Amino acid sequence: MPLIAFDALQDGGFAESEAVLDGDAESLILYRDGDTVRAWLNVCPHAGRRLDWAPGKFLKSKEGLLVCASHGASFELLHGQCVAGPCRGASLRAVAVEGRDGGVILEVPVRAADRHLVESDAPCDPEDAGMR
Ligand code: FES
To answer: What value does the CA radius of gyration of the chain take, rounded to a whole number of Å?
Structure first.
């Protein structure tokens, strides 16, 4: 299930979406840059507030920075780093997303246990598997 339809995001625009990450419901900032979408947790590193002034309504400066509605921290939109304001040098927490099949979806990391199954090319030892 996509977070949002890709075309619902204007190029250079923002949207907000909810997602469950590590078992917790989180608000995400989605930002479209051409054919790419980037996402961060909607949590300002200054005082932990949401960055939008109303749900899904984000401020963008004329310099192209995302501006937190609470105290004006300003973030560049490549890495989500604060370049001006009270938390200069801190970063938003990035969330991996990708555009696929007309939607924006979370990239789900491969679990360590699954990665072992995929990457292991060691022959199966029937003794280890308790088959003898
Ligand atoms: S909470 Fe964002 S600038 Fe203070």
So the answer is: 19
32: which 2 tokens?
Answer: 């479209």
CA atoms of 111 and 64, how far apart (whole Å):
36
Q: What's the CATH number for 4-119? A: 2.102.10.10
Q: What ligand 1 atom has the least distance to the C-alpha of 69?
A: 2
Q: What is the pLDDT of residues 49-71, one digit of tens each?
A: 999 999 999 999 999 999 999 99
- The single residue listed with the structure tokens 């949401």 is 50
- Hey, where are the domains in the chain? 4-119
pLDDT in tens, 109-127: 655 555 554 444 444 455 5
Measuring from each residue's beta carbon to the nearest atom of ligand 1, which residues come in under 6 Å?
44, 46-47, 49, 68, 70-73, 85-86
CA–centroid distance, 98 to ligand 1, in Å, is: 27
Q: Which two tokens stand for residue 78?
A: 């490549």
Whether the CB-CB separation of 96 and 41 falls below 8 Å is answered with no
